[in-house]
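Structure tokens please, single chain.
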Amino acid sequence: MKALHVIAAALALTISASALAHDSSEKVTVLQDQMLKNAPGKKAMMIEVDYKPGQSSIAHKHEGTAMAYVLEGEVISQVKGEQPTTYKKGQFWYEPAGSEHLMSKNASKSKPAKLLVFMVLAPDEQVLIPLKD
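Here you go.
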């Protein structure tokens, strides 16, 4: 169990460092990283994403399936092939594995926003892959 916490902490630092390296500094915290006993070869992750007012993520994709829930504020999200949608506190959305997440940003320039993201992926799959321009 201790090793799992070390891996989760290292992953959180990796995700944050990757985001910071691309001019995005949303705070990403891995809350849980757990292998699934009923789905061999898959793991579940819970991630909290904190956006400062006006802040956004880089365009990216996830190798795993993602489900996001707005804990605080409002977030504008757009997946390739769809229109941007504003989600308010208590609303949620689903992104199939491999979806290109073109936009994820705080809708407010004066209030913070927070997401809870639940993902299912293989241990060797990347949580976030920046999209090339």
